[in-house]
Amino acid sequence: MRPEIVEPPRRVGLEWGTHVRPVFVRYSSVRPDSRERRRPLRETPTNFCEMFEKVDSVSAVERSRIMALVRSEDTKPELAARRLLHALGYRYRLHGRDLPGKPDIVFRSRRKLIFVNGCFWHQHACKRGRRIPVSRRNYWLLKLRRNRDRDAVNQKRLRALGWSVFVIWECQLKNPGAVAQKLRRYLEGAGGVGENFSRG
Length: 200
Description:
Layout: E1 4-6, E2 24-27, E3 42-45, H1 48-54, H2 60-68, H3 76-87, E4 93-94, E5 105-107, E6 112-117, H4 119-122, H5 137-160, E7 164-169, H6 176-188, E8 196-197
Parallel strand pairs: 6-7, 7-8
Antiparallel strand pairs: 1-2, 2-3, 4-5, 5-6
């Protein structure tokens, strides 16, 4: 068979990204100058593995729409943590916009704060937090590293201002009883100025 280099089709089950344009080799069982009826052509990407590593599985427009749906406030983990606190009899303020990092739950009279972090977005040490998307890997590594560094800077600034910080991780809310005990100890404890309870 005689190979013929051709341009890739516009769509083959995936939306084409901007970073990779694989070359396809088209095989035919007859010579190009033959007038016989040709058989259907078979197309195979020559760099198929590389295509799956770099091309996003959805279009840029769809990816933008998905990212826009990611909530920064009133997330499911945050609502679960608030229900726990309410059941324990605590009252609080939400989203301290005047504080570094906009803590999710604020106890101003106690000088105590609670962040409710998603394991993936804030890079928890659990299985979900260690997962990195296959497509656009370098982009995600940089973005998630910036999130983690920003969290550390904000917590340092809060402790310098005299606040005590507590972090609830998304995966920990699978065991609400254990989280409730930690919350009660944190809120009822003396808690030195700027004490950090962010490790989980």
